[in-house]
Amino acid sequence: MILFIGLNTNSFGQSTSFKLKGKISNEDQQGLANASVYLVDVSFKPSVKTLSDSNGNFEITSSLSGDYILMVSYKGYEDYQSSIFKLADKNFKIQLVPISLKLNEVKIEGSKKTIEIEGNTLIYTVANSINAQGGNALDALKLAPGVMVDNNNAIALNGKQGVLILLDGKQTYLSSKEVADLLRSIPATSIKSFEIMNSPSAKYDATGTSGIINIKTTKSPLKGFNGSITTGLSYGVSIKQNEDLSFNYRKDKFNIYGGYNHFFGNYSYLYGSDRIQNAKSIGSFTDDTDKRKKIGSRLGFDYNLNAKHTIGLLANGNFIFGGGITRTSTDIDVPNSSMLNQTLDAVNDYYHQNTERYNFNLNYKFEDTLGHILNIDADYGYYEKASGNLQSNRYTNNQNVLLMQNNYRTLNGAAVNLKATKLDYTTNFWGGKLESGAKFSDISTNNHTKFLHLLTRKDSLDERRTNDFNFNENITSGYVNYRKSIGKWSFQGGLRLEHTESEGALTFRQQQQDAVENSLRKYTNLFPSFSVSVKPSANQNLSLSYSRRIDRPAYSDLNPFVYLLDELSFWQGNPFLKPQLSHRFALLYTYKSSTIIGLNFSHTNQYSTSITDTVGLESIVMIPKNLGTQQNISLTLTQLVSPAKWWEMTFNGTLYHIQNEIAFDQYRNLNLKQLAGRINLQQRFKLPYKINAEVVSSVNSKRLLGANEIMRPTSQVDLGVQRNFMNNKATLRLVFSDIYKGSKGNSLLNFEGFYLHNYNYYETRQIKLNFTYKFAQGSAKGPRTRNSALENENGRIK
């Protein structure tokens, strides 16, 4: 890395070109990131364009000559234009002036594009989509380029699972199922954009073998008291109600903000399977009703001690509580033996379900005018989940005569404590930016389950399925990252070191005595990353990036709990899971931010996923395992087209190939290959009477999911219309999603002696009506952003 910097510095020192550099700040001397900087000639013809970095600094190097003008543009601020000057080395200090916004006239000319590219990051602006705004954050995520969410709520990026989800730069610390629940509790109206990073730099935690998606929530740029309220109803199988309230108050050096949201109503899930196992035909169907209520809240403040020092505190809480019930009917048929045919009816009554998640972030930031930035985060997170379930299993013959009945009670609980501190430092170094930092996280989890047989007089504890699982993990990491631009070229290189120590203790009963099994792990990994980009012209950009990534197991996946759907189907954890490691390459080409072409490749070792396997003669188990290797290569195209002033289209297509070289055990080796694709077309129309409309259609081809499951094609069409009232302070929005139920899942998997056909439908066809009212006073001011120290561990809670 030192050699790389030295070579760049020497080559730059021999250049005869000039250098323009400077810093762009707001009225509080805070740097403005991603401000557009233009160098134009006296006829205002653009010659060079660049963007300011995260600290507001910019640099232009060129060998042009003559008279030029420097211009700066940033949303919410008046444009800056310098006087005419002759090209030479210059240093600018530019302070932008905010555009005043009045309560009775909130009008901002121009808007961000739905899809934009900044460096190696693709940004999808949710606020520009009517259909996205009509639902929750998970609904909106399904519309983002390259993102796929299947009916099991597993999130994939460019056809590969293992994406890391951040919320305002903070890890969610939840598994894929819990992430889905969390995103369902966040209204899309509070989401600003999705930042999609295929190959993140060493500054980010190395988690996420398929990349990172950072979900940025809306933050008001206005001084004074302002906010918004959204209320809505939706109907699919039953009626649902959603609410979202957010506020912000800025005065002088102080800013306080907060919000509350909820989703109330029942959600219907229908799923089933047909399988052939040991010559028996077993067909089951489940009607699942989720009655849980979802509530989210946050409260935070920032205080500017002076122009260089800022402190802040942010608290988040998410709560999911309520009941639920599943009814499963399973027919067991033995060919040529009708007398042995049976039906198993199982009912799971989740009479108690409660999930609580709290996160607290304390932040300090120092920034001076010389490019020095020190950022310190201290975080504490607490997650608790508990459930109680009564299950009945009733066997009858083909004459509906009761053969046998078993009743169970299951009590599950999990508590997770997360503590982390993080320090990041940025400084100018040899004409570029040197970033370095360190992080320490400490995670402790306690999981317990009790499995009881319900007998006539009292409950009997099943020792085989009852245990306590404690897991502790410490991760120590540090990184260094260097960025530099030379003319049309930009370079970035970094290295991250992560050392992990973990200890698991499984306590269980064996022959009426307590027994303990311990597992200790220590491992150290290096995660290099680099990127190089070039701008052949003002309208084109080409970049190549590489990063090494890791996915550690979800905490509860390490616990060998047994969760019964019925006596023939269950889920189980695996204490022997290992992290999966991946190498990722990404090539990205953009033209005028309207054409974006990406080529991505990843190779994953110790590939892990949940598989469906046989147990005994009739039962199946869903269990996570390390299986082998996976290769993924994808080609993506995003195209923005405007056939007319009243019609805009955004096309996104992904073509990807997956190869799984895996082994279930020493006797079952599989080499599976599948070419698949996804097409998404988003059309926006400006209609008479100030009505805006949107049509979103998507098609997914046959594809390989997980280890060996083949999903059949699916498609979906959503319609949305909206109109603004009261000088654009109020919005009425109507959305009709999945009009013809094209998102129904249908998949197949098989190996010798076993065949399984799965199908499901998750109430995606809904009609949604939402009303939003915004209130504001004061003038615009750029909001402060920060990242939490807990950026890697949250995603592993399940």
Question: What can you tell me about this protein's structure?
Answer:
By secondary structure, the protein is mainly beta. The chain is built from four helices and 49 strands. It has a 22-stranded antiparallel barrel. It has a six-stranded mixed β-sheet with strand order 9-10-16-17-14-15, with no helix packed on it. Strands 2, 3, 5, 6 and 7 form a five-stranded antiparallel β-sheet that branches. Strand 18 and strand 19 form a beta hairpin.
Task: Describe the protein's topology.
Elements: H1 2-13, E1 18-25, E2 36-41, E3 46-51, E4 57-62, E5 67-73, E6 80-81, E7 85-86, E8 90-95, E9 115-118, E10 121-125, H2 130-133, H3 137-141, E11 147-149, E12 155-157, E13 160-161, E14 164-167, E15 170-171, H4 176-184, E16 191-197, E17 212-217, E18 224-235, E19 239-251, E20 254-265, E21 267-277, E22 280-290, E23 293-304, E24 309-321, E25 324-333, E26 342-367, E27 373-397, E28 402-429, E29 432-454, E30 459-461, E31 467-486, E32 489-510, E33 513-534, E34 540-551, E35 562-566, E36 569-572, E37 580-591, E38 595-615, E39 619-644, E40 647-665, E41 668-687, E42 691-700, E43 703-705, E44 709-711, E45 714-725, E46 730-737, E47 745-751, E48 754-761, E49 766-775
Parallel strand pairs: 1-8, 14-17, 36-39
Antiparallel strand pairs: 1-4, 2-3, 2-5, 5-6, 5-7, 9-10, 10-16, 11-12, 12-13, 14-15, 16-17, 18-19, 18-49, 19-20, 20-23, 21-22, 21-48, 22-25, 23-24, 24-26, 25-26, 26-27, 27-28, 28-29, 29-30, 29-31, 31-32, 32-33, 33-34, 34-37, 35-36, 37-38, 38-39, 39-40, 40-41, 41-42, 42-45, 43-44, 44-47, 45-46, ...
